[in-house]
Amino acid sequence: MTAQHLAVLAQYAPNPGTITHNQSNGGAAASVGYSCHLAMMHWAFMALNCTGAEANAAVSRIFRAYCANCVDGSVHDRGFGNGIHAAYGQLFCKEARTVADNASLYKLAEVGDVLITGPKEFPAHSMVVSGRMCNLMQVKRVMVRGFNNLGTLGTGEKDAHDMLSHNVMDDRYWRRDPAKPDHTAQTKFGMAAASLSIIKHADFIERARTALILSRVPRQEAA
Predict the structure, then answer these.
(1) Count of beta carbons in the 10 Å neighbourhood of residue 139
(2) Running DSSP on this structure, what letter comes out for residue 208?
(3) 143: part of which helix (H) or strand (E)?
(4) Beta carbons of 71 and 21 less than 8 angstroms apart
(5) What long-range pairs does 70-74 form, CB within 8 A, spacing at least 24?
């Protein structure tokens, strides 16, 4: 039930879609917008029956628990690069499986699954599978929805919800591995030619359930 729900939720921008945290060393707290990973957390928490406000509160607590500035004010950074990518990988992506190419993607993907680019320990981008279909001409499609798709798919706006669905089976999203010039298969995904991995919906939602619980516990107690 949550698989279709997650896909539907991803059609809409997270609301609220901002968090408040310490942006700079010694600076005052400020409001910043969601990243793709934060949006994915938000949708997953709502799929677990949180309201938008409750999902946002959980996302905010997780972000502040792993943001270096919020923890000790030691790093001049927004926080995204100082912990949240690694935290997202640790909390949500351990079961990620590498997708070899676009043909493999169709075999693996189901509605509600989550796709990530880059290493699962430090993922760069997240999207949710919103559709999987094959027409009478045997043209196969795997549709995705996401937030801040610009850097990966070249569509939508930076740091904003992408209002369109995209068929990531399309060859334009796939690249040959530059490290293997004699390899003909297109094994790298997106504008950055990164690896693509898939997290099955049941695994992702179970990770979200655990993260939701841990978000209510002080970090030192949850470790």
Answers:
(1) 10
(2) H
(3) strand 140-146
(4) no
(5) 70/21, 70/22, 73/22, 73/25, 73/26, 74/25
